[in-house]
Automatic annotation (TrEMBL):
Alphabetized Gene3D superfamilies for the sequence: 2-enoyl-CoA Hydratase, Chain A, domain 1 (3.90.226.10), Lyase 2-enoyl-coa Hydratase, Chain A, domain 2 (1.10.12.10)
Pfam families: ECH_1 (PF00378)
Protein name: Methylmalonyl-CoA decarboxylase
Gene this protein is translated from: scpB
Family named by the database record: Belongs to the enoyl-CoA hydratase/isomerase family.
Length: 258
């Protein structure tokens, strides 16, 4: 059974995350379905994509599928990780991707939202960046996605506390473009998509790619990269990652000592 649904109408493609039993966790299988959908959207020259949940429930997406995170001693967020691949697919899709959000957004799903081009949300939305609860060492590409988009103070607070941020504040700090009443969310989102779909697709595609490349244009030498990777290795080889994953599986608070 596919874990997403898609629709195309008026040059607008909609991608519905449709696995609420697992709170739309971004599993390998779900990501494969997204890639197939995105390929289809490209073939049909879709001019704007809306990324939403198929259900109007209290969770938009629970983020990375924790059951698929590897055991301690293995990099939990390598280049080929499903979530990493999903982020690249969204960022390089040659037309704008609009996130339409109702409900809570967790961990890697926050990065997915940040990777979208425009974010429409209602008042039920919250954002929690949770790797510090799991002991997951975030990767350089992930940090760059956040720091190229949000103020450093906000990024730090979210990563350090892992606490959910409510919609009103998320609007103020720039995570959300438009915060609208739940009853208007769909209409407002598709109005935006229709406007974009009327504009020059070749120009927009070139803008999106230019903004992506320029916002990622951070020069670090290989030595610095290895240094950052070494910092991450200490975390995923260390006790916190093992404890974080075990606590999640046992449905308890992690104990990272004092
Ligand atoms: N991965 C795998 N399974 C998940 C999951 C996840 N992220 N989130 C939920 N599930 C499963 C859960 O185990 C349960 O399965 C079902 O979805 C319903 O969840 O029915 P089963 O087999 O027991 P639950 O918890 O009963 O639903 P709820 O009471 O409605 O609570 C919803 C939330 C979202 C609050 C709760 O499920 C939750 O806290 N999920 C984890 C959120 C999270 O911490 N995500 C971050 C994942 O890490 C991540 O993205 C990374 C790697 N990161 O940030 O670096
Ligand atoms: N370039 C050349 N001529 C212009 C012009 C422009 N950007 N804007 C107005 N004119 C001329 C118009 O052709 C008319 O000339 C006169 O100014 C009064 O305009 O009398 P003429 O010879 O017919 P108009 O439209 O009658 O005035 P208005 O009814 O008061 O309306 C004003 C606006 C500003 C709303 C209207 O003129 C308009 O929409 N202009 C174009 C606005 C626009 O799209 N600008 C973006 C230009 O592109 C740009 O900056 C680039 C390259 N970009 O964004 O990358």
């Amino acid at each position: 059974m596919p874990l997403i649904r898609t629709e195309i109408a008026d040059s607008i493609g909609t991608l519905f995350l449709d696995h609420y039993a697992k709170r739309n966790a971004l599993s390998r299988e779900l990501v494969e379905d997204v890639h197939a959908a995105v390929d289809q959207f490209r073939k049909e020259r879709v001019r704007a994509v809306v990324l939403r949940s198929a259900t109007n429930e209290k969770v938009w997406s629970a983020g990375h599928d924790v059951d698929e995170l590897p055991k301690a001693g293995i990099d939990p967020l390598p280049y080929g990780d499903p979530l990493e691949r999903l982020l690249r697919a969204i960022k390089t899709y040659p037309a704008p991707v609009i996130a339409m959000l109702h409900g809570s957004v967790w961990g890697g799903a926050c990065e997915l939202v940040i990777a979208c081009d425009i974010v429409m949300a209602d008042e039920t939305v919250t954002f929690a960046i949770t790797p510090a609860k799991l002991g997951v060492p975030y990767n350089a590409a992930g940090f760059l996605n956040f720091i190229s988009r949000l103020p450093l103070t906000v990024v730090k607070e979210m990563f350090f506390t892992a606490d959910p941020m409510p919609a009103e504040r998320a609007l103020r700090v720039g995570i959300i473009n438009h915060l609208v009443p739940a009853a208007e969310l769909e209409a407002r989102t598709y109005a935006m998509a229709r406007t974009i779909a009327k504009r020059s697709p070749s120009a927009i595609s070139a803008y999106k790619e230019a903004i992506r490349v320029l916002s990622e244009a951070v020069a670090i030498n290989p030595d610095t990269y290895e240094y950052l990777h070494g910092l991450r290795r200490e975390v995923y080889f260390g006790p916190d990652y093992r404890e974080g994953i075990a606590a999640f599986r046992e449905k308890r608070e992690p104990d990272f000592g004092r």
